[in-house]
Design a protein that fits this description.
The protein has 513 residues and is mostly helical. Helices cover 75% and strands 0% of the residues. Helix 7 packs across helix 8, helix 8 packs antiparallel against helix 9 and helix 10 runs antiparallel to helix 16.
Length: 513
C-alpha cells in the first residue's frame, strides 16, 4: 500500500503511542484525512438549514414537508451511528470510513440533482446513512494512530470542524443559496469527498477486520429506532413549542422506552452493540456525564443567539452567521493549547478551566443581550466563550478515550457520538420551548405556535416589542447557565493526571495496545 505518511506510524500503533510529544507527520496526515470527512459532514447540516425556505419555494412544498430535508438526515444519522462500532470491527475502520464517505458523496450528488421534495428527502437520508458513520469511524482511526498519550492533541484537531461547522455553515449556505444555486449546497461536497477518498486510500493504514464478532441484532432493533423516535419527538416538540400533542408525546415516549430497554440489553448481552459496561470506569462515566450536561447547555445556547439576531435585531441568516464567527476564532486559539495541556497535565484540570470561562461568558448574555446591545460587545463575549470552548469540548472526549485499549476505542467513539447527538437534540428542544414560553409570557401571546409568531413582524411593531423579546432571551440564557454549572459535578471526577500514570478502577495500570 502506497502511503504518504510515516511507515512506522502507519503500521505500528505502538510506536505512534510511545511519545507524549507533538504530532508527527504520519499522525498529521491521518488527521488531515479525518478532518476532511468531518468538515464535509458537519458543514452539510448547517448549510442545508439556511436553504430550507428557498427549497420550499423551489419545489412548491409546504414547510412541514420540506422540513424533512433536515429531519430525515438527522434521523438517518441516529439510525446508523449505533452500528458503527460493530461495523468497524467487522469490516475494518479504513474500509468503513471510505464506504461512509462514498455513501455521503453519492447522496450529495443525487440531492443536487433532485427533481422533487420527495426525491430530495430520500437522497438526504442516503447522505445521513454515510454521514452518521464518518465522525465515529474517523475518531477511531485518529485516536488509534496517535495512541493514548496524544489523544488530547488529536481530539483538538477533530474538534476544529465541530466548532466551525455551525459558524461557517450559515455563511457558506447563505452565499450559495443567494448568489449561486441551492444545488451547490450539495455539489460542494463532491470535490471534498473525492479528495478525502483519494487520500484515505493512500494514507490510512490497512486494518484487520474481525469477522468472528456477531452483530447484536436485538440491540440494533432497540437502539436505532429508539434514537430515531426520540430525536424526532424532541425536534417536533421544539418546532411546535408543545410536547403535549399526540404525535410528539407518543414518539418521544416510545423512543425513550426503546432506549431504556436497550440499556438493559447492553448490560446483559455477551457482545452488545455498544458496550455500556465501559461506563463502569470512572473516567468514561465522568466524561459522559460532563458531555451530556455541556452539550445540552451549549447547543441550546447556540440556538438562542442566531434567533436573537434574526428576531430581535432583524438580521438575515447570512449576517447572523457572520456575527457568530468570533466564537470559532476564539476556539481556534485555545483548542491546540487545550489538546497539549490535556496530554501533559490530564483532562480534568483543563476542562474545569474551560467550564469556568464558558459559564462566565454565557452568564454575560443574561445581562448584555438587550434590544440595542453593541455587536462589538457581543462579539467580544462570543470570542471569550470560544476560548473556553476550546478548553472544554474535546478534552472531555479525550478523558473518555485515554484510558481505553486499542480495541475498545471504536465502541467508545460510537457511544460518545450518540451521547453528543441525543444531548444536542435535548438541548435545542429544551431551549426552544423555554424561549417560546418566555416570549409568550412577555408578549402576552400563546406559546403553542412556536417562534413563528415573532417572525416577519412590521418594523413599527418591532420597535415596541424588541425590548421584551430581548428580555425573553436573557431569561432563557439562565437555564443554560444552570446546566453548565451542573456540569462541574461530573467534571470534578475527570482524571487529573497524564495518561501514562492513569490506572484502572482496580488500581492496575491499563495496558495500551
Amino acid at each position: 500500500m502506497s502511503t504518504l505518511s510515516s511507515p512506522e506510524v502507519a503500521d505500528d500503533p505502538q510506536k505512534a503511542s510511545g511519545s507524549a510529544g507533538g504530532l508527527d507527520r504520519g499522525v498529521l496526515a491521518v488527521a488531515m484525512v479525518v478532518v476532511l470527512g468531518a468538515i464535509m459532514s458537519i458543514l452539510d447540516v448547517t448549510v442545508v438549514n439556511v436553504a430550507i425556505n428557498r427549497l420550499a419555494g423551489e419545489f412548491k412544498a409546504p414547510l412541514s414537508t420540506i422540513q424533512w430535508v433536515a429531519t430525515g438526515y438527522t434521523l438517518a444519522l441516529a439510525t446508523v451511528i449505533p452500528v458503527t462500532g460493530w461495523a468497524s470491527a467487522r469490516f475494518g475502520t479504513k474500509r468503513l470510513y471510505m464506504i461512509s464517505i462514498a455513501l455521503f458523496v453519492c447522496g450529495s450528488a443525487m440531492a443536487g440533482l433532485a427533481w422533487s421534495a420527495e426525491s430530495l428527502i430520500a437522497f438526504r437520508v442516503l447522505q445521513g446513512l454515510g454521514g452518521g458513520m464518518i465522525m465515529p469511524a474517523g475518531m477511531t482511526i485518529l485516536t488509534q494512530a496517535a495512541g493514548p498519550k496524544r489523544v488530547g492533541q488529536v481530539m483538538s484537531v477533530v474538534g476544529i470542524p465541530m466548532l466551525l461547522g455551525p459558524i461557517c455553515g450559515p455563511i457558506l449556505g447563505g452565499y450559495l443559496v443567494d448568489d449561486v444555486s441551492w444545488r451547490w449546497i450539495f455539489f460542494i461536497n463532491l470535490p471534498i469527498g473525492l479528495l478525502a477518498l483519494f487520500l484515505s486510500a493512500r494514507i490510512l493504514k490497512r486494518d484487520t477486520p474481525q469477522p468472528g464478532e456477531r452483530l447484536d441484532l436485538v440491540g440494533l432493533l432497540l437502539l436505532s429506532p429508539g434514537l430515531a423516535a426520540l430525536i424526532y419527538g424532541l425536534a417536533k416538540g421544539a418546532q411546535k413549542s408543545d410536547f403535549s400533542t399526540p404525535e410528539v408525546l407518543i414518539t418521544t415516549i416510545a423512543g425513550a422506552i426503546l432506549v431504556v430497554l436497550f440499556v438493559f440489553r447492553a448490560l446483559s448481552a455477551e457482545n452488545p452493540l455498544i458496550d455500556l459496561r465501559l461506563l463502569k470506569r470512572r473516567s468514561v462515566a465522568a466524561a459522559s456525564g460532563t458531555m451530556v450536561l455541556f452539550m445540552c447547555a451549549f447547543m441550546g445556547a447556540m440556538l438562542l443567539l442566531p434567533l436573537y439576531y434574526q428576531l430581535v435585531r432583524q438580521e438575515s441568516a447570512l449576517a447572523s452567521g457572520l456575527l457568530l464567527a468570533p466564537q470559532g476564532i476564539g476556539a481556534m486559539f485555545t483548542m491546540p493549547v487545550g489538546g497539549k495541556l490535556t496530554d501533559r497535565i490530564g483532562p480534568g484540570r483543563v476542562v474545569l478551566m474551560g467550564l469556568v470561562v464558558v459559564v462566565g461568558s454565557v452568564a454575560g448574555f443574561t445581562a448584555l443581550l438587550q434590544a440595542d446591545t453593541s455587536y462589538w460587545l457581543l462579539g467580544a463575549v462570543l470570542f471569550v466563550m470560544g476560548l473556553g470552548l476550546g478548553l472544554t469540548m474535546m478534552p472531555v472526549m479525550a478523558a473518555a478515550i485515554q484510558t481505553l485499549s486499542h480495541d475498545e476505542v471504536p465502541r467508545a467513539s460510537t457511544m460518545l457520538n450518540i451521547i453528543q447527538q441525543v444531548s444536542a437534540s435535548v438541548g435545542t428542544a429544551l431551549m426552544s420551548v423555554l424561549l417560546a414560553n418566555n416570549l409568550a409570557h412577555k408578549l402576552g401571546t400563546s406559546s403553542g405556535g412556536g417562534l413563528s409568531a415573532t417572525q416577519h413582524v412590521p418594523p413599527q411593531i418591532m420597535q415596541k416589542i424588541a425590548v421584551p423579546m430581548a428580555q425573553s432571551f436573557q431569561n432563557t440564557y439562565w437555564y443554560a447557565v444552570a446546566l453548565l454549572a451542573l456540569a462541574f459535578i461530573p467534571a470534578l471526577l475527570l482524571p487529573r493526571h497524564r495518561p501514562d500514570v492513569m490506572t484502572s478502577p482496580t488500581d492496575t495500570p491499563i495496558v495500551m495496545h
